[in-house]
Amino acid sequence: MNLRNLSVYFGGILFGFGLAYSGMTKQEIVLSFLRLDDLGLIFVMGGAALVTFVAINIIPKMIAGPILGGVFKPRISVLTRNTIIGAIIFGIGWGISGQCPGSAVASLGTGNYPVIVGLLFMFLGAYIRGRFFKG
Amino acid sequence: MFPLGIEPYLIGGIIIGLGTSLIYILTGLHATQSSFFSATLSYFSKLRHFQEEHFVKERVWRLYLAAGLITGAIIYTILVSPTGFWVTKIELWRLALGGLLVGVGTRLSNGCTSGHGISGLASLSTTSLYAVITFMVTAIITTHLLEIIGVV
S-S: B134 plus which of A87, A127, B10, B67, CB 3.0-4.6 Å? Predict the structure, then answer.
């Protein structure tokens, strides 16, 4: 295990802890946001994005590059038809199940074993995307 | 609007942000989750899509990220959670069908709630902003339509 992977692992522990702390590992809480009964999810995504905004936009002005090597590069992607079609398909799946990739993986750590089914189908979905969709 | 208060949400979100920030400042990597599926499939599938250089290059650290997410949730559940281990009551068909669409959709859109929702928005990416608005609105409509036909 090199230092880089160890860093990712420790950052991942914070990420997973935060997902569980905020209740995002509970599909019922995510669905209550989507029913607009409990809007707390906005603060989870907003709080996380705000802290990450500092890391991506302000820290690189203070240090030359990532401490363990590599380059700072914001996550900018090109808008295509697939971006929007994919987001619609994702939204339907999120609305049906209350699962998204990060929260579903973390949910395993809370003992939520049925989500294994959801994760296996996410792998199948990712395979279908690679096998049958272009671009 | 906020039956459980806003503190757990805001504090949890800040902790998530500290995790993604730590990873970015140390390594320059964006801790996003949906690429984990495609990158892991590169171990098993010879399809050209999964053998793209970036998936093969990323697949090891993405396993560490997934392991970290699970470890963090275990730590929370054992040391902090007032209720302990927890199991969803959502029907399996919904987890399966929803999971399938989440897999196709996030990989086609090249991002999910963490990729577009956290790293993308934090990078001020307009592509991610359009993606977030699209999946939020679609999911809200889907959940309401399901409620109308009695699936809650």
Answer: A87
> Is B118 inside any structural domain?
yes
pLDDT digits (tens, 9 = 90+) for B6-38: 999 999 999 999 999 999 999 999 999 999 999
Shortest CA gap B114–chain A (Å): 7
Asked, for residue B58, whether it belongs to a domain, the answer is no
Cβ atoms B106, A77 nearer than 8 A: no
> Which of A16, A42, A126, A8 lies closest to B52 in space, CA to CA?
A126
| Domain span at B147 | 89-152
**Model confidence, pTM:** 0.97
Q: Which residues of A touch B70 (CB under 8 A)?
A: 16, 105-106, 108-109
- With a cut of 0.90, is the ipTM above it? yes
Domain count, chain B: 1
Angstrom distance (rounded) from CA B115 to CA A107: 18
Tell me which chain A residues have a C-beta less than 8 angstroms from the C-beta of B95. Answer: 27, 97, 99, 114-115, 117-118, 121
Task: Tell me which amino acid residue B129 is.
Answer: L
DSSP secondary-structure letter at A24? T
Please say whether the dihedral angle defined by the alpha carbons of residues B31, B62, B127 and B99, taken in this order, is positive or negative: negative
Residues of B whose CB is below 8 A from A93: 97-105
Flag if A48 and B36 touch (Cβ within 8 Å).
Answer: no
